[in-house]
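User: structure tokens for this one?
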Amino acid sequence: MIIANIIALSIAIIGCLNWFLVGVFSWNLVTWIFGVGLFTRIIYAIVGIAGIWLLIQLLFKRTRLFASHDRNNQ
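Assistant:
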């Protein structure tokens, strides 16, 4: 699970850097490397899946954290 989180975080960081480049310089690194086509869409889907994975991990850990905190206070 830790390896999946590290991979997802690495992919999400690369995606964030790409969006930074798009926002500041109007330059898309992914389309510059891979061109416009199916492979680029697959890359974007992988970045999206990594973000969803990290969001689920965050929500799961937050729920578990609050649940253990509530048990300790009772």
